[in-house]
Amino acid sequence: MKVLVVVPTYNEVDNVRPLIREILAQGETIDVWVADDGSPDGTGAAVREAMAEFPGRVELIDRGHKGGRGAAVLASFKKGLADPHGYDIFFEMDADFSHHPREIPKFLAKLQTHDMVIGSRYVEGGSTSEWGAARPLLSWMANKYIALVAGVPVRDTTSGYRGYRRAVLEQCDFDRIKIKGYVVHGEMAYQAWVNGFQLGEVPIHFKNRVRDASKLTSEEIYMALLNFALLRFRYGFRPKKRARPAEVRS
User: Fold this and answer.
1) What share of the chain is helix, strand, coil (3-state, %, to 5)?
2) What whole-number distance in Å separates Cα of residue 81 and Cα of residue 87?
3) Could you give all domains of the chain from N- to C-terminal order, each with its CATH number?
4) What was the pLDDT predicted at 58?
5) How many other CB atoms are there within 10 angstroms of residue 243's CB atom?
6) Mean pLDDT per 10-residue run, the chain (250 residues)?
7) Which long-range contacts (CB under 8 A, 24 or more apart) does 52-57 make?
8) What is the pLDDT of residue 105?
9) What's phi and psi for 60, nearest 5 deg?
10) 188 closest CA partner among 198, 203, 174
11) What is the reported pLDDT for 134?
């Protein structure tokens, strides 16, 4: 199957080429698209060097402005669905090795029987490091809150390391997504779940980046909490019935 890995970037010049090499090493049918938000540090130039090193397998989506991780991923997915390569599986992951490419085979194995697979810090075998004391607590509370108000049957709804079967993104109504930034993951998971797709999780180790990541503003946090509480009313309370991937193949 053809696999597309989308990597949103902003100022990742030191990481992006090594990351691309690691991703492509996971399989010959894997391509990488880097969605760069106009990084001033030369990230785009580094991606172009990788394009020359791996012709036909790497592409730069130069967005020209800082629009945020969620917007970069959604725009790339839309473009990927229309691409003539006909990608079967889509991934999203961070560019700083907090999500490691060596985990990709676990996702691909799980996607044989599930439609959407999340890299989870909170299932057996999952873990985090270099997170300090407050962030793990905040992350745990956010996921508990989403599970309570939205009912999505996964333990790490906010994880940005995930893989999708093509059908999930084809059914996704990108234009209805109101949540912005990193927490767009929760609304995408809800759409997948309420459309009847089978969600699964695989354990990952999340290593916090050395330098500071972008911070959510108080307004973004407030709007995210409000929108999560409204997901059931916007999309419906119960998942549709849908054949599972294994049933379709059989």
Assistant:
1) 45, 15, 40
2) 7
3) 3-249 (3.90.550.10)
4) 98
5) 11
6) 96 96 97 96 96 98 87 94 97 94 97 96 86 75 88 91 97 87 84 95 85 62 84 87 58
7) 54/20, 54/24, 56/31, 57/24, 57/30, 57/31, 57/32
8) 97
9) -105, 125
10) 174
11) 72
Q: Closest Cα to residue 23, out of 37, 33, 11, 13?
A: 33
Given a contact cutoff of 8 angstroms between Cβ atoms, the answer to whether 47 and 125 are in contact is no
Amino acid at 138: L
Q: What are phi and psi of 142, to 5 degrees?
A: -60, -45
First to last CA, the chain: 17
The C-alpha atoms of residue 93 and residue 100 are separated, in whole angstroms, by 8
Burial annotation 90-127 (CB, 10 A radius, 16+ → b, else e):
bbbbbbbbbbbbebbebbbebbeebbbbbbbbbbeebe
Tell me the two tokens of residue 200: 């699964």
What was the pLDDT predicted at 248? 45
Closest-CA residue to 187 (of 141, 135, 132, 150)? 150
Q: What is the pTM of this model?
A: 0.91
Q: Is the CB of residue 89 less than 8 Å from the CB of residue 27?
A: no
**What single-letter DSSP state applies at residue 46?**
H
Q: Which tokens sit at 87? A: 């990608």
Tokens of 48: 């172009």
Q: How far apart are CA 14 and CA 6, in angstroms?
A: 18
